[in-house]
């Protein structure tokens, strides 16, 4: 996607041919800055501190983290240690484990002198594959928006999303936002209700930033406004992403997604979830088994903002001394999901729906038997 007319991915190999550059998402939306990763620790820190975030991008960053680790030490022990360190950074997004498995398969049986080159080649391929996967998600989700537009000719299709599942969460295009970009590019009148998405405000800060950069009409709303807008008939559909989807179609996404799905169900608003096949965890049979990341209380009690003179500061927003809990994700049960938008097509949020699309996925059986 483009920022100020220049095309960017969220992660790329620098001009030196080995270090890795990322868009530092902790600086958005007030400042567009890149950061350089040169070590395993840099990559792990970028994931843990959410300089990079979103399940697909976490996986891509971990893949390059393996590359950086192997540059320092290409031994079996170092490879295993690097994967363990990266896997420990964030527990919910299954793409992290998937990407590390892909990297292990690419380099484990290689001679040490070939491992670095093999690792970089596989990491680059993973990124290219993610871009193509997200493009296909966009193509498969676009007809849903087109059909909504046909039901209300001459009117705008209003779509509500939660958190950030656009190109900033992936390598390019995004998952939930890819169909919206496709519809906008095709000239359909679309408008996005952007949940602010507390804590961390990924909607107000990131989704609004990238929609604005692409020229997509949008409006930031408080998290608790979604149900009201649905009752008023101002939401035609919801599309969100997911960090992990279980074999039965349950989805884990940013905290607050479940509440939007409940409101959508009550108001007859279609609720779609967009995901790459790599986000499906065939080893888990239901959402109750998904590990939910618990993040620091400061994300709830503090907020970043920009003062009138342009200074970006962090301020307290809670009663001093009050404790705060911060579960980062919740689980939306499959019964509340109208459909899953994948690179293979759109399916019902059921075991049968997923298996029908991914029946030829070679790792499905192996993962299920792990």
TrEMBL record:
The keyword Amino-acid biosynthesis applies. Keywords: Amino-acid biosynthesis, Isomerase, Methionine biosynthesis. The keyword Isomerase applies. The active site is at residue 243. Pfam families: IF-2B. Substrate binds at residues 53-55, 90, 202, 253-254. It comes from the Bacteria. GO terms for molecular function: S-methyl-5-thioribose-1-phosphate isomerase activity. The record marks 163 as: Transition state stabilizer. GO terms for biological process: L-methionine salvage from methylthioadenosine. InterPro entries: IF-2B-related, IF-M1Pi, IF_2B-like_C, Initiation_fac_2B_a/b/d, M1Pi_N, NagB/RpiA_transferase-like. Pathway: Amino-acid biosynthesis; L-methionine biosynthesis via salvage pathway; L-methionine from S-methyl-5-thio-alpha-D-ribose 1-phosphate: step 1/6. It catalyses: 5-(methylsulfanyl)-alpha-D-ribose 1-phosphate = 5-(methylsulfanyl)-D-ribulose 1-phosphate; 5-deoxy-alpha-D-ribose 1-phosphate = 5-deoxy-D-ribulose 1-phosphate. Its EC number is 5.3.1.23. Belongs to the EIF-2B alpha/beta/delta subunits family. MtnA subfamily. Catalyzes the interconversion of methylthioribose-1-phosphate (MTR-1-P) into methylthioribulose-1-phosphate (MTRu-1-P). Also catalyzes the interconversion of 5-deoxyribose 1-phosphate and 5-deoxyribulose 1-phosphate. Part of a bifunctional DHAP-shunt salvage pathway for SAM by-products. This is Methylthioribose-1-phosphate isomerase. It comes from Dichotomicrobium thermohalophilum. The gene is mtnA.
